């Protein structure tokens, strides 16, 4: 297989993956935030109704507790899943890969040397390795050992993304 074509295929595959993951995490983040807004508003409205109608305040108080518990569940899910951090992280990697692809398409052609193509492949590996390390450090809270090689960080990133999706 032509190494330039392989590089462009790999870039496109990674770009598509990070684009799709970032969209999914953006939507999850926004849906969780909107849910908290709505539930908090409902809780406030119920508290107002309890003051207005004291004869049913005990029933309304139970509803307030249930709605408040739902807010707690939603914020806990957000804290565990970390969709905002993932969204930003994936979007940053997505744009770095898009920039690299644009550079590859501009600078490489069918007459480019194998060494030049490999140089861009290693740049892609560096982006993916740094992404994996950042994911482990900032999102998963895992510190990689000093002898971890960048290629291993890519594998860790891919494993981590599959864990988050499930």
What's a quick, concise take on this entry?
The protein is mainly α and 166 residues long. It is 86% helix and 0% strand.
Oligomer: single chain
**Tally of individual helices:** 5
Characterize the main sheet: none
Rg for CA atoms: 23 Å
Structural domains: how many: 1
Q: Helix and strand string, N-terminal first?
A: HHHHH
Q: In percent, how helical is the residue content?
A: over 70%
Molecular shape: rod-shaped
Low-confidence stretches: 148-157, 159-166
Structure description:
By secondary structure, the chain is mainly alpha-helical. It has one domain. The protein has helices at residues 3-52, 57-81, 83-107, 114-139, 150-165. 19% of the residues are buried. Residues 148-157 and 159-166 have low confidence and may be disordered.
Record keyword descriptors for this entry.
166 residues, mainly alpha
């Amino acid at each position: 297989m032509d190494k330039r074509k392989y590089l462009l295929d790999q870039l496109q595959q990674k770009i598509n993956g990070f684009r799709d993951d970032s969209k999914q995490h953006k939507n999850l983040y926004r849906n969780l935030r909107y849910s908290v807004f709505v539930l908090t508003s409902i809780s406030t409205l119920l508290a107002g109704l309890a003051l207005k109608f004291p004869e049913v305040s005990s029933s309304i108080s139970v509803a307030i507790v249930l709605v408040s518990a739902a807010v707690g569940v939603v914020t806990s899910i957000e804290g565990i899943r970390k969709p905002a951090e993932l969204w930003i992280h994936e979007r940053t990697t997505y744009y770095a890969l898009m920039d690299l692809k644009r550079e590859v398409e501009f600078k490489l052609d069918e007459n480019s040397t194998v060494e030049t193509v490999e140089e861009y492949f290693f740049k892609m590996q560096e982006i993916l390795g740094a992404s994996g390390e950042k994911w482990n450090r900032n999102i998963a809270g895992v510190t990689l050992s000093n002898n971890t090689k960048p290629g291993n960080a890519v594998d860790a990133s891919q494993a981590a993304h599959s864990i988050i999706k499930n």
